[in-house]
Design goal:
Blueprint lengths: L7 H10 L4 H19 L2 E4 L1 H16 L11 E5 L26 H8 L3 E6 L33 H8 L5 E5 L6 H7 L2 E4 L20 E5 L2 H11 L17 H6 L7 E5 L9 H16 L3 E5 L7 H16 L20 H12 L2 H14 L5 H22 L4 E5 L15 H5 L6 H6 L3 E8 L5 E7 L5 H15 L6
Parallel strand pairs: 2-3, 2-4, 7-8, 7-9
Antiparallel strand pairs: 1-3, 4-6, 5-6, 5-10, 9-11, 10-11
Helix pairs in contact: 2-3, 10-12, 10-13
């Protein structure tokens, strides 16, 4: 690269100071994408002309002495589930192949208002259903640490874009761990904000009571800068919280954990977690204790039911949300030759347009919501959700933040779990509880396993206490000194 690049905070400062131009920065990252993405497949669309035009506008504004936004000139990659005016939004599905929205998601608009250069749209599991980014209709994304392995999912493209230095920042979405788990598997920082802390307007819904957009970055401070730009109340989103954004940037700038109580969830640390994951988790706790934190054990007994509850609630909401993809209003239409009924065209379109995992979850959800089964399945799952929220409330009475490994294993080979859905679903066992309760979570890279693959540690905090994540994450980052790159 023709400029000194260590992190997005320094990049923004360098552009603002005139140390290098926004065009230089954009060109350098676009060149990096061109060099690497044939192998990685992190991007579904790269907006070369749009990125350069935005960069030129930033340079012109600076030359005129105008005030610049906090992300002015910084390239950001956006998961292809968020609408982008003038750029395709496919959700990784043939159902929306070629669709170019006429409007921006609120997150996208916030990025533009902050001066960010939207460099492209990233690959994902179809409609965000998956834990490996193998379910994309446009081919799997590959992990830059080992191209034969998965990058996690469903936001694998966004995680890889940052890990492979194709973009300094990216946006993902997290419904059951889809930011935190790929962050752990690619060695970057990933954050799921408090539910309702970031607007879902323009985010193509998977499960409306669980979905949340959030940042990927190489450092905790970079994630905080992006989080602050993304977040805030939006009257167009009925789930949006009308409250000030937690002081995440200030928290990342002063990560002092002296006196902080860090609760270790005993149900999410033992059997089923890879040996190296457990070892690095314990080493991280020791480093936090050395930095002045108090480590306490907490119990969340109903977490054992979280996975089962999640895989009733998510498919039920997905079945409802994806009903709009019916070949009648927009998107793919198959078999409309004038001789078939509307119902036949709908059936043929959904058969051709949806992949196997999406079909599996739609069928699960439709069954769970069907007459005679609603109370037994969906209703019971919602009761479990309440018990999990109660577990969190009890745990946070004993601790300021909670800590667990982010994922039970490091990245596994492509194809290894495709035919074993339960094994795939278990990858989210540590991340799902936070989504069910609506609380924020963060994954921070803490080391490598014996095969040189990244491992992440997860912090969780009470709702709207997102700043605590940045204190704990920043302190751990400083204590470990993580600098490994693929």
């Amino acid at each position: 690269m023709s400029f000194s690049y260590t992190n997005a905070v320094d990049l923004a400062a360098g552009i603002a100071a005139g140390d290098f131009s926004a065009r230089e920065v954009a060109t350098s990252f676009l060149d990096r994408i061109a060099e690497t993405d044939d192998q990685l497949n992190a991007f579904l669309a790269v907006d070369v002309s749009g990125a350069l035009a935005t960069a030129d506008a930033i340079d012109a504004a600076r030359a005129r002495g105008e005030a610049l936004g906090p992300l002015a000139g910084v390239p950001v990659a956006v998961k292809d589930v968020l609408t982008t005016k003038g750029l395709p939004t496919t959700c990784g599905s043939k159902m929306l192949e070629g669709w170019i929205p006429a409007y921006d998601a609120t997150v996208t608009a916030n990025l533009r208002n902050a001066g960010a250069v939207i460099i492209g749209k990233t690959n994902m599991d179809e409609f965000a259903m998956g834990s490996s980014t193998e379910n994309s209709a446009f081919g799997p994304t590959r992990n830059p640490w080992d191209a034969g392995r998965i990058p996690g999912g469903s936001s694998g493209g966004s995680a890889v874009a940052v890990a492979a230095r194709q973009a300094p920042l990216s946006i993902g979405t997290d419904t059951g761990g889809s930011i935190r788990q790929p962050a752990a598997m690619t060695g970057v920082v990933g954050v799921k904000p408090t539910y309702g802390g970031v607007s879902c307007y323009g985010l193509v819904a998977l499960a409306s009571s669980l979905d949340q957009a959030g940042p990927f970055a190489t450092t905790v401070a970079d994630a905080a800068m992006l989080h602050a730009v993304m977040a805030g109340h939006d009257p167009r989103d009925s789930t949006s919280i009308d409250a000030p954004v937690p002081p995440v940037v200030q928290a990342a700038a002063n990560p002092d954990v002296k006196g902080m109580r860090i609760g270790v969830v005993k149900q999410l640390t033992g059997e089923g977690f890879q040996r190296e994951v457990r070892e690095h988790f314990q080493e991280s706790l020791d480093a936090l204790a050395d930095a002045g934190a108090e480590i306490v054990e907490v119990s969340c007994p109903h977490f054992e039911y979280a996975l089962a509850a999640y895989y009733l609630i998510l498919p039920s909401e997905a079945s409802s949300n994806l009903a709009k993809f019916d070949a009648m209003r927009y998107g793919l239409r198959v078999g409309d030759d004038g001789d078939r009924s509307v119902e036949q065209v709908m059936a043929l379109t959904r058969e051709a347009g949806f992949g196997p995992e999406v079909k599996r979850r739609i069928m699960l959800g439709t069954y769970a919501l069907s007459s005679g089964y609603y109370d037994a399945y969906y209703g019971q799952a919602q009761k479990v959700r309440t018990l999990i929220a109660n577990d969190f409330a009890a745990a946070f009475s004993q601790a300021d933040v909670l800590a667990t490994p982010t994922a039970p294993t490091t990245a596994f080979p492509l194809g290894e779990k495709v035919d074993d859905p339960l094994s795939m679903y278990l990858q989210d066992i540590a991340t799902i509880p936070a989504n069910l309760a609506g609380i924020p979570g963060m994954s921070v890279p803490v080391g490598l396993d014996d095969q040189g693959l990244p491992i992440g540690l997860q912090f969780m905090a009470p709702a709207m206490a997102d700043d605590r994540l940045y204190v704990a994450g920043g302190a751990l980052e400083a204590a470990i000194g993580w600098e490994a790159r693929p």
